[in-house]
Amino acid sequence: MIRKTPRLPAIDGDAVVKEALGRIKVPSRRAFLQRSLTLGGLSLLTGCAIVDEESVETALMRVSRFNDRVQGWLFDPKLLAPTYPESMITRPFPFNAYYGEDEIRQVEADSYRLEVTGMVADKHAWTLAELQALPQTDQITRHICVEGWSAIGKWGGVPFSSFLARIGADTSAKYVGFKCADDYYTSIDMPTALHAQTLLTLSYDGQPLPPEYGFPMKLRMPTKLGYKNPKHIQAIFVTNTYPGGYWEDQGYNWFGGS
Ligand SMILES: Nc1nc2c(c(=O)[nH]1)N[C@H]1C(S)=C(S)[C@@H](COP(=O)(O)O)O[C@H]1N2
Ligand SMILES: [Mo]
């Protein structure tokens, strides 16, 4: 996303935020948001510019719906985000980053190494060939960007849970963090990292992941909004220390469920 945080309107923000919090059922999530939720955050979380009473209602409705789905994914890891037939793939698939298409990062395949650090048993750095040699699967899912667009795409790669098992990750840790070849970074909670549809992604539409979609490797999570899906990943670390993220540190909701 390139646009800045939307300007905020003159409505009773505190009351709206309070109402939104009331609709969040999981106590730990409510407590987390109580510390961090602002009216701007609510706009971003719901993808809905809060400008008048009608948009307040829409935003609150989205919180309720979002809340139910997030709750489902967190507490029933078998619950899956929708998948689609090949015929529904969006062509061409949109490009998005915090910069324009003329600045797409070109990562070199041969010298690429994926660094793995933190609470893991095996800290060796992976070549692209080593990643490609792991068992692969693919999925056709919807990517939802907080800016208000979505698109269906087909991604292939290694289930992230099997990669975490492979490196001997301590799955009792709270977070998995990602550093990218551009200045992007983000982090996710361990239940999401272990979710069945979270994919260490090496291909797009049957071809090696093109530079615009994150060559050589990105993390694809249909349970999360676009900005939680890091492209051009160079380092993965498992940690109990909150790592934040590029947009998250500018006020976007860290949880970022789709
Ligand atoms: N490294 C990196 N990853 C990133 C971004 C970025 O700017 N840099 N932008 C995020 C945002 S906001 C979106 S919507 C998606 C876009 O992914 P796409 O190019 O596959 O559509 O990438 C996410 N991951
Ligand atoms: Mo996005």
Notes on the protein architecture:
The protein is an alpha+beta fold and 258 residues long. The protein folds into 2 domains: 13-74, no CATH class; 86-99 and 109-250, Sulfite Oxidase, Chain A, domain 2 (Alpha-Beta Complex), CATH 3.90.420. It is 26% helix and 21% strand. It has helices at 13-22, 27-36, 39-46, 53-75, 128-132, 160-166, 190-193; strands at 115-118, 137-145, 149-159, 175-180, 185-189, 199-204, 207-208, 218-220, 233-239. The strands form 2 sheets. Strands 2, 3, 6, 7 and 8 form a 5-stranded antiparallel β-sheet that branches. A 4-stranded mixed β-sheet has the order 1-9-4-5. A hairpin with a 2-residue loop joins strand 6 and strand 7. The longest helix is centred in the N-terminal third of the chain and has 23 residues, at 53-75. It is globular. The model is unreliable at 3-9 (pLDDT under 50). Ligand MTE is lined by residues 1, 94-98, 143, 145, 180, 182, 184, 212-213, 226-227, 229-232.
